[in-house]
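Q: Got a minute? One more chain.
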Amino acid sequence: MAHGCPFAAANNAASGAASRGGSCGGAARCPLALLVAAAICAAFTGLQEVVPAAWLQHLLVLRFFSRARVGDRPWSHVVALTVAAVATQACGMTVAYAGMYAIGPNAHTLSSWLLVAVNVLPMTAVLLLPCLADSLFRYTYRLSAHLHPLVFPLVSASIWTLLSLLSPFGATAHPLYSLRSLLPLVQATAWVGMDGVLLVAAWLVGGVHQVMWRSRDCGSSGWGHVRASAALLVGLMAAGSARETVLSSRFFQQPLSAAMAPSVPVSCLLSQAPTTGIPPQPPASLSPFAAGASMPLPSLSLPTASAEAAGARQLLQGGEGEDGGDVGKGGEGQQGGKGVAQGGASAVAGSAGVAARAEGAEVAEAAETASAGEAAARETWEEWEAWRLAGIASMLQQTQQRATAGDTLVLWSEASVILWHDHEEQKLLADLAAIATAASANRTASAAPSAGAAGPSSLGPYLGASYMKRISPGRFTNSFALIAPAGGAPILRYNKSHPVPSVEDNVLPGRGTLPVVDTPLGRISVAICFDLQFPALISQAGSQGVDILLQPSWTWGAIGHMTFETDAVRAAENGLTLLRCSSIGVSGVVTPYYRTLAAREGLATGLLTMHLPLLPRAPALYPYISLPMSLLLLSLTLLAAFLAIAPPSLSLPLCRCLPAALCSLLPHPLCLAGQQRECEREKRQG
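A: Always. Here it is, folded:
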């Protein structure tokens, strides 16, 4: 093995020195150009998705690790090559997601880019693991060359399964999102999920890589993988199309059937309540309110100065009155003949008085500064409180107007208002219950003369409130409550399970369980904004037969359109209707067949009205097999890793448990020379 620059060593690798797939011949050249080309392709993913670029990136990175022959190098070279790959691809991904954290017009561009880079770097390192695993795969058994194209898809699907379950980012940046413009593939997620479709698509990429760059050496099985994966991909697309046509008995008239379905009027109330920058607690001068006083802010008795300032003034007054006065009296006593000793004591007391006055002046200055700062903080807080209370009143007023106007469902956008205490939450829910009860009574009275003719639009109103609730200083929950037309306690409550990393660091996550409630509109559940990037969480709704999934949301900048399209995949994946209400971003209705209805882009505040079709659930298998499928993918990946890494002495006992036909093929360890002969034999047979 050559030691030194790993890129220079890549140029000097011998044609038969490698012990991994595709290394039977052909000198490797410097693969830096492949990294640069892959980084350029990576820049066209993310917020500016280009389908060919997204998958060409995987192919180029696969080729980079293959040409670098990392399987033959010392670990120092492997680490250097991997770091180079991660750095270049992270640069491209940073460009792709540069606008993700540009939350407002005042956001600093450089800080936004740096924040994206910090979040992209570890994710890029994880996403390159399938390519690295493919390059480290060794031909230990006779079937290794034929099974090699399966390494990349198995590891890719397994990594994304783990990321969706364990990562705080969930399925964000999932490769399948780049194929969301292919409607039949999105429909196919209802059968096998995103990871199942990814497995087949990545298998095709692995087969193409085998054919293009290994077929002349020992990749004669590449064409078989290409044909098999392409056939399976076409089969998935056919199954996805059949879901919308044959299985729904609607053939190609789904858009028309959605338009003709019974519908109810709904409204989205948008309010831009900040999820960041919320004061953790009131200033010290508002300590009764900070401690949880039950009275509203305007009735609080606000002290004019802090305790620290009052103590400082008392200290200053004491120094001037006692020390200064005693000094004067000491001087008079000396003149009255009280003795030299008493005069000396008075002199010492006079010096102490001067020092006390100097110290008192410093304390007074500090007290005045603290008092001014406290007053400014209190003034800022009062302004912020006035804005908060006005926001609550505005949302309640708009809700009452829409309920009176006849809307069946009124949904607030995410974190529409901010509540500080339990009594504020109870008051808000009680006000909403009163609004629902009054509106329902009015509808019942107006519908009485024409009883029996009431349609779906006469139902309701159902009021969905989304709010931030303070739990402790600096900590909040992102909560939702659904009020029924009969009023009373909420029929459905939920706390956001997956706060957005770096944006909602002050939000406590919920329990990760979706609530479900049966209504005349159908079975309803709710998930808040970023929760829809976690397929396992939303599959709870699919497996419980939910008809309508409510999604209060709050997005910003360029990610509004992207998150609407990617979150909508959950509707097709679980066979339900999605109603999304988003401040700044896109609000709308998505059918169980990934058809978008009434999509509208909202501003920070305002009102959006639309109609929600009451559609039946679409066929969906994935919600019921998501866990077994994830376990199967992980098990197959671990088995492949064991067979590739473990020596024959450990793997032979496993082979004895397999059928004789398979066992005769598997346990044939090959040394490097034997691998070369095996390659030559396959070439002659080809």
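A: The longest strand covers residues 462-472.
Q: Perfect, thanks.
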